[in-house]
Amino acid sequence: MRTPSELMKPSSKLPRHLAVIMDGNGRWARQRFLPRVAGHRAGVDALHKIVKHAMKRGIEILTLFAFSSENWRRPSYEVSYLLDLFLNMLENETQKLHEQGIQLRIIGDCSQFNEKLQAQMAQAQDFTSRNKGLKLVIAANYGGQWDLTQAMRKIGEELERGTLSSANISAELINARLSLGDLPPPDLFIRTSGEQRISNFLLWDLAYTELYFTEVLWPDFNEVELDKALVFFSGRERRFGCTSEQLEESSYA
Ligand code: FPP
Fold first, then answer.
1. CA distance linking residue 67 with residue 62, whole number of Å
2. Nearest to 137 by CA among 204, 64, 78
3. Is there an atom of ligand 1 within 6 Å of 188 CB?
């Protein structure tokens, strides 16, 4: 268990790990009498801006919800468009990510994607795996319930093999088997477009995360809007179950 002074690092006013639900592409397009997919296209431009600005601000990990396990329910042309967009980005931008020192990671059940996309995902992750800059995590066919389920399945297998006993199951052990188990949890979560839901994103990982909701639609989310969220974060007191007094004492320790 970490002590209050360990939790209150001087750098804690800037999120190390930022997680984002990029929502509102469809409404952005509808407001302009454009097809929904035009909103996704514009969403990619916003994504570029935010990746660049997050690096400029010194964020270490940026996790983006690109395609949820429920998004398969959308019209098939929209699903195909999103998957093509993903494939094109990987084909055209992996080299650029690499040049900027970005390490790409994809979390989710990728086995449901077509072989070409799966191969490109594996290639892009492998190509950037030794980079030391921003860790860019793309959640694709991801769901928080899926993540917990696959972790429980791993634990079940270890119990069956006899390499784990039930007495040793702890929060740390479960965490280590989740998709982001080797990374610190998100400090700040942003959802655009006015919806105030987690929508089966990082259910376990968001336990102590500061939540920021904005009415701005994702394609309009830019550097200024990200800075507003960072200002919001810098004003929050993160207590992790402690009291304000404990945190004040530990900041003088
Ligand atoms: C939610 O808006 C957005 C998505 C489901 C897809 C997000 C994708 C991108 C920003 C671009 C592609 C990114 C990658 C990595 C390929 P919505 O369609 O639910 O908007 P609405 O709620 O207004 O209908």
1. 15
2. 64
3. no
The DSSP code sequence of 167-198 is GG--HHHHHHTSTTTTSPPPSEEEE-TT----
pLDDT attached to residue 6: 45
Residues 97-133 have pLDDT tens digits of: 999 999 999 999 999 999 999 999 999 999 999 999 9
The DSSP 8-state label assigned to residue 100 in this structure reads T
Measured from the CA of 195, which atom of ligand 1 is nearest?
Answer: 22
HSE (CB half, 13 Å, CA atoms) of 96?
8
Do residues 50 and 93 lie in contact, with contact meaning Cβ atoms separated by under 8 Å? no
What are the structural domains, with CATH classification, of the chain? 15-144+188-235 (3.40.1180.10)
Q: Whose CA is nearest to atom 3 of ligand 1?
A: 23
Alpha helices by DSSP H, listed for the chain, are 4-7, 25-31, 36-56, 76-99, 115-128, 144-161, 171-176, 223-234, 244-252
Q: Give the ligand 1 atom nearest the CA of 138.
A: 15
- Cβ 85 vs Cβ 41: under 8 Å: yes
Q: Reduced to 3 states, what is the DSSP secondary structure of residue 64?
A: strand
Q: Identify the H or E element spanning 65.
A: strand 61-68
